[in-house]
Amino acid sequence: MKYPIGIQNFEKIRHEGYAYVDKTALIYSLAHNGSYYFLSRPRRFGKSLLMSTMAAYFSGKRELFKGLAIEQLEKEWTVYPVLHLDLNTDKYDHKEVLEQRLNLFLSEWEERYGRNVNEVTLSQRFEGIIKRIFQKEGNPVVILVDEYDKPLLQAIGNDELQSAYRNTLKAFYGTLKSQDRYIRFAFLVGVTKFGKVSVFSDLNNLTDISMDARYQTICGITEEEMHAYFEEGIRYVAENNEMTVEETCAKLKRRYDGYHFHQRSVGVYNPFSLLNTFAKGEFGSYWFETGTPTFLVQLLQRDKFYLPDLTQQQVTSDMLNTIDTINDNPIPIIYQSGYLTIKDYDKEFQIYTLGFPNEEVEEGFTNYLMPFYMNTGSESGPMYTRMPTRPCSR
User: Cα–Cα distance between 229 and 245 in angstroms, integer?
Assistant: First the structure.
């Protein structure tokens, strides 16, 4: 079996025979039940692949979806022009970088669809492009924005730069509302929602599906999906580690399962760690090895947050969803980044209890923070709390 580790292009996955966990029924539901959406999910959770799959679907590339759920659901396969913005590439360390990145996208589209010399600002140019595409193609535009929050994350600790990025993005995304008549569908994704309120304040028709029960599994891999698609991988890991299939299943669950994006949600596995384990036959901390949570360290140090408290956080729904509270409390951004997840919910008081999703996150997060965040005056040892293990279920 070929595992699509690090491959975020849907066409490449389908053409070259990589494994693909079918999420297309959820994509169909989104496309036919609304027009403007926002999704927050941790890094390496399949957001970019989701965007690439949407791009192929709205481009009418029916041949790529042979054998998938959407092939039977979609009857028309209308071809829409797609504008795909990916803000993940640059290092946003000064104001001009974001403007340069947006200018690159706009210039590319203007070469194809033309430009009005009276359009000067980034938002004016974006407006003109959307309108001209509709006039030329005869169908409304699909707009996909990947890693909308990358500039904002990299500007944490720099209030001036943070404000500049918010103002730029607010005006740019505000175009989507003013050009609504020319837009078929818009989908914006990122790791966090800490800039959502101010950045998207002019786009008040945006539906946030980050904690929507209907779409809780749109990224990641459920246990049912793991067994449906990856029995071969499970057996390989078991043989390579001289374990039974049952023991392997239990360890996979302890290490990589446990993400919950709704109070009544099923558990979701980290897809990056799971696929790496199947490919290499070894258990590891694959998610943490691909990047260090520098912005989280900065937040926790700044707020002098007591590390063991991370295992027993109780918060309201408003706190998890209104993330301009970043200046007062780091917990929402830690939750949305995937370092905490929903462990329990008190329906009467509408209170969520948060904790580490699994062993990989618990160990990696704690071990990474130790050199920076330990109470050096304490002789009680590492601030570390083991999680209870859970049985594997099919």
Answer: 15
Amino acid at 101: R
pTM of the model: 0.90
- In b/e form, how buried is each residue of 282-302, taking b as 16+ CB within 10 angstroms? ebebbbbeeeebebbeebbee
145 forms bridges with which residues in the sheet? 85, 188
Torsion of CA 342, 267, 373, 385, to 10 degrees: 90
Q: How far is CA 135 from CA 81, 129, 149, 354, in A?
A: 11, 10, 31, 49
Average per-residue pLDDT for the chain = 87
Query: Quick one: DSSP state of residue 267?
Result: P
Quickly state the pLDDT bin for 89 (edges 50, 70, 90): confident
Counting Cβ atoms within 10 Å, is residue 15 exposed (0-12), middle (13-18) or buried (19+)?
exposed
SS3 content of the chain, % helix, strand, coil (to 5): 50, 10, 40
